[in-house]
Design goal:
Elements (H helix, E strand, L loop, with lengths): L5 E5 L3 H13 L3 E5 L2 H10 L4 E5 L7 H8 L7 E5 L4 H9 L4 E4 L4 H16 L14 E4 L2 E4 L4 E3 L10 H11 L5 E2 L1 H8 L8 H15 L9 E4 L3 E4 L3 E3 L1
Parallel strand pairs: 1-2, 1-3, 3-4, 4-5
Antiparallel strand pairs: 6-7, 6-12, 7-8, 9-11, 10-11
Length: 241
């Protein structure tokens, strides 16, 4: 890796924490560990991390609850670990803002590959952003503002709304193509960048997360509309500066 990224591993099993710390540090990562949500928040308050590995089953607050809380004010990349391998658990994790999901038992090398992929997706420039140098730096829609330089989204009352890297890229894809019907395949091409690992099923989850952040009523969306048999359409006037 081009620099030493700081990773926080949250898992209540000491053997797993120690194994991951040794393995990831051997591959150039700076690793801190925590046994539960209380220790996790102590570390997050003390220093900045580039990625969080969060176990689903934890004493006290579980991983889903902690992920949802973190997503309230942070876009730190999150990879969730769980002994449960059902699709529903993966979907729940993605819906509350996780960037990826690795079921236990796992090969540490697979987890390392996922970490590298998520970090590239978070810090690199995806396809939809490659032309930002010549594109507008601020998009305005329905009294919302998206600054593509600072990656800040402000609601109509000028309150910052945190976005994950994939949420930012998805919103930018829509703002770059207002009132155009985009199929899932179109969105995949726009969102996938160097190292991105976004798959077809995750498109719906990403859109659901975006709707919860920008729609007045996510169950009756007026901005990101579902076009049956066609895909999705950002149905709003978009201006830029």
């Amino acid at each position: 890796m081009e620099r030493a990224y700081r990773i926080l591993v949250v898992d209540d099993h000491k053997d797993i924490r120690d194994l991951l710390q040794r393995f990831l540090q051997q591959h150039g990562l700076l690793v801190t560990t925590a046994a539960d949500g209380v220790e996790m928040y102590q570390h997050l308050a003390a220093q900045k991390f580039d990625l969080l590995i969060l176990d689903l089953m934890l004493p006290g607050k579980d991983g889903i609850t902690l992920c949802r809380e973190i997503r309230g004010d942070s876009n730190i990349p999150i990879i969730m670990l769980t002994a449960l391998g059902e699709d529903v658990d993966r979907i729940i994790g993605l819906e509350v803002g996780a960037d990826d999901y690795v079921p236990k038992p796992f090969n540490p090398r697979e987890l390392l590959a996922r970490i590298k992929s998520v970090l590239r997706r978070h810090f690199a420039i995806p396809n939809v952003e490659e032309q930002l140098a010549s594109n507008p730096t601020q998009y305005l829609f329905a009294d919302w503002q998206l600054n593509t330089t600072s990656r800040e989204l402000k609601n109509p009352t000028q309150v910052l709304v945190p976005l994950t890297s994939t949420e930012f890229t998805m919103l930018l894809a829509f703002l770059s193509h207002p009132n155009v019907v985009l199929s899932r395949e179109d969105l995949l091409k726009l969102v996938q960048g160097r190292g991105a690992d976004v798959y077809d099923r995750a498109i719906d989850t990403l859109i659901s997360r975006l709707r919860k952040k920008i729609e007045t009523d996510p169950k009756k969306p007026r901005l990101i509309k579902t076009i049956w048999g066609g895909g999705y359409q950002f149905s709003c006037e978009v201006t830029h500066v």
